[in-house]
Amino acid sequence: MPIDVASARGPAGRGKAPSAGRPVLAETVEVSLTFDDNRLASLVFGQYDQNVAHIERRLGITGTALGNHLVLKGAPDAAERARRVFERLYARVQKGGTTLTVGDVDGVIQEVTVQGNLFPSAEIAADPGREHFEQIATRKRGAVRARNAAQSEYIKLLRANELVFAEGPAGTGKTWLAVGHAVSLLEQGHAERLILSRPAVEAGERLGFLPGDMREKVDPYLRPIYDALYDFMEARHVDRGLQTGIIEIAPLAFMRGRTLTNAVVLLDEAQNTTSMQMKMFLTRLGENSRMIITGDPSQIDLPPGQKSGLVEAVNVLDGVEGIGRVRFRDVDVVRHDLVRRIVTAYEKAAHGEGEHDRNPNPRRRPLA
């Protein structure tokens, strides 16, 4: 892949020292990339060059794509970062040959940014594959790489600990990656069963009486887990696993009195557990089992005044050996860029609510 780099300066950079008070124009460089395969280059650039435009906005550079040729212009650091992003995207489509999503592009940008912060440029050039984000692999999806540093840390903790707490807002991949990790352990023979659960608590609305058998009653609560399962496993394998008991999906109430051995146990929406339920669930862990607990403490649907079992557990168990904890933030949302901006707006509103409600100069209304 031929690469050309040219440097240019504005008027202040023509060999003369800038005079006092005269603005200094920032240095810009031009980087040219030529990819070997036109078809793969088109996958990297995206439909109507949408990936190029996205990287322009994220990194503050300009990019011009023509056929298999790409010209990048911008500040030296930004242009170099963009070059590594496009090279890594090209390597990814070479390996997989699939269309890239905006989330994939954002993940590579994050990966390259972390790599640049940790290692000098010389080390990166000598070892371009260094400090990749962690990944999980299943038979259906193949390798799924983390899209940000928090997700990469999450996958590391899942591998290293018997119990992992994952907290954070919607759209950060807490449940999705947990299910993917659980499926990979099942397929590799490290676990014999998948047990997936969540508390049956309505999100601010009363659903009333639900007809049908137990599975039909709890399905609406467990639908997000089903969706993740079908993402990582073939539908026929999911259905067979449900029929044979290799995959068990049940409400939290059905966990009482059991000892769960040789299993991966996932509790989703754990912010809606009570203290008693959480203690009951944690003590179900048996030999050769792993437990993953996910939730968003900002979306507690318990009755007013009732303490969340998730909030209590992460405080009580802080520092206990064998327990990992990862906290996702609004900047870690990968579902859709608009979702990230929505979560950020709500976070800002929540933090400013107390001060906004307090009037620093209170005035009494005049008496009528």
Layout of helices and strands:
Elements: E1 3-8, E2 28-34, H1 38-45, H2 50-59, E3 62-66, E4 69-74, H3 76-96, H4 102-118, H5 121-126, E5 135-138, E6 142-145, H6 149-160, E7 163-167, H7 174-187, E8 193-198, H8 214-232, H9 235-244, E9 247-251, E10 263-267, H10 275-282, E11 290-295, H11 309-316, E12 323-327, H12 337-357
Parallel strand pairs: 7-11, 7-12, 8-9, 8-10, 10-11
Antiparallel strand pairs: 1-2, 2-4, 3-4, 5-6
Helix pairs in contact: 1-3, 2-4, 3-4, 6-7, 7-8, 10-11
What would you note in describing this structure?
It is a single chain. This protein has 368 residues and is of the alpha/beta class. It has helices at 38-45, 50-59, 76-96, 102-118, 121-126, 149-160, 174-187, 214-232, 235-244, 275-282, 309-316, 337-357; strands at 3-8, 28-34, 62-66, 69-74, 135-138, 142-145, 163-167, 193-198, 247-251, 263-267, 290-295, 323-327. It has a six-stranded parallel sheet. The radius of gyration is 25 Å and the shape is elongated. Residues 11-15, 117-131, 203-207 and 354-368 have low confidence and may be disordered.
